Amino acid sequence: MNSIKKLLSKNSIKRVMDFLKKHKEIILVTMPLVLIYLFSTMLCLKVPYHFIKYYTPLLFTAAWLTLFLGVSLSLKKPFGKFIYIAVNLLFIIIFLTNGVYFSLMKNVFDFSLVEGASEGAPYILDSLKNCHITVYVALLIILVSFYFGLKNFPNNNKTNYKKMLTCILVFLVIHLITPYTLGRENKELTWSSWRNARNIYIAYNDSNKSMKISGIFEYSLRNYYLTYLKTEEMEDEEDSEFLSLAHEVVEKPTNKYTGKLKDKNLIIIQLEGMDSWLLNEKDTPVLYKMMKESINFTNHYSFYNGGGSTFNSEFAINTGYVTPFSFNRNAYSFNKNSFPYSLANLFKNEGYTVNAFHMNTGEYYSRKINYKNWGYDSYNGLKELGTYEDDSYELDRELILNEQFASLMFPEDTKFVDYIITYSGHLPFTNIKGVCKKLYDEDKQKENEGKELTEEDFVQMSEEECIRRQNKETDYMMSLLLQKLEDKGLMDDVTILVITDHYLYTISDLSIIARYKETSNNLINKTPFFIWSKGINKTNVKEVTTQLNVLPTLLNLYGINYNPNNYVAEDALNPGYKGLAFFSDYSWYDGKTYFDADYDMTKSGVNKVDIENKNYKVSYLTKKNDLTLKYNYFNR
Questions:
Q1: Half-sphere exposure in the Cβ direction for 449 (13 Å, CA)
Q2: For the chain, first and last CA: distance in Å?
Q3: pLDDT digit string, tens, across residues 224-240
Q4: Does a structural domain hold residue 333?
Q5: What's the CA gap between 134 and 126, in Å, rounded?
């Protein structure tokens, strides 16, 4: 039996050797491109996106290799060899570019970056020096393989057109079918569309994920096509005229608040799901006290529109625009649009450093890419620091206690803007797992003076109890922030803007919310928004506001010049401002009237002219919002 196994083993080895000998030329010719694919794939292993169907990039690669090699090996040697050399040199350069860029930026190279190449030119030598050594080792292996490929390139005396056409046909079939292996496109806007592999392929605006699902050849060629060759959706004459009028330059009105906060540092706290009923004296005493001493927007709505409601608020606050109403694009897919009048860009023009801080990684919602696109100096996630041995980074206190974050949050000798996104108020709302469990265990340990807990000590908390406890953690984070500002002598020179991203829609028992607020229509979106600064005259602003009002209101308070028509909404502190919140179903609320599809226009006392005017305004503003994003209006 053993002798048979040995014989079979020897025969197997012989068959493999015979195969390699017989196909030596084609193997050696193919090897450099195969190595480019393999090393590029290894380069992206640390990209935090795990797509299960790994055969998809293999199929794309097989399709392109069939085309490249099929054509070059079918042509008469001088022409075929020229194409072979050109293709290999092109992708060797692309590999090196990706390797250097990824080593430094942790992002795959994107052809759109070529536009800013002149700015980075002085740093090319430093970039090459700081590139990881493994990139150069891989490059050397590829170059050696390329040498042997050239040496063994077949000597064709004539062109084999039948073979070439067959290879082209095989390429077209494989390339046409392969995108379907990515699964179905998520056509409905959901928060997790950014994870859907087919959505990623269609949008192709996240270079890391696009590379991971496509492979180096498909990624490079598709990225080039979308950057330089794909025809932009042209504005028709009517849309072009509309946008020109909508963005016409007008003088910014001034009011008694203009420049009141000029040159102060700014900290924006975006609260995770802290509903209006949770900001109270018992659960969140620090935030409650600040709200009572602030410019408090008492009729504010953080409306949900499209997928990813948390990021939707980030997008609106930072750009003055919101997820489109009339076509399906998530807010985080506009990272190639130009936003020269974003919060970060305008404050940087005033000499501020601008940084963002959160628990989660920059990959989530493609934040790292988006915040860079908006002009931020950096996006920072506790989770990706790699310094936490457990998941205690989910506690909001760590946003302030973490020393690395603190050094960026409170820079010396420069004005700063910090955009802090909290997390502890996020589900699950149970003390069996998640943030509530951490806080429950901590509380129990304090109660029992460090004794080990037993099952008898454990008491199941209700959903509402967990929610309140988790928001108390966020309030604790705020107390730490205030203390840090006091210790650093910054208290007199800082503004803190506090705003909630969305109402607590993640709660499973909606009857809890119904005890505290309107839940039968879009007024459920009412949430806290206030601006606090030491010595500011406390004011209650009763006019309706949304996330879209934040940026123009801030710019006026800081005395930063801007064109009001660059934004969808207005400065909410302007005396002439008439509040209006509109929602994804085109319903709206002006502080007195809530209008939706069921509104009874026949009832007595209805001012039909006013209703029609408001409907027109909502239609106008949503059209301005959507067309500005659709046509990338500011990129001109």
A1: 0
A2: 77
A3: 998 888 776 667 888 99
A4: yes
A5: 17
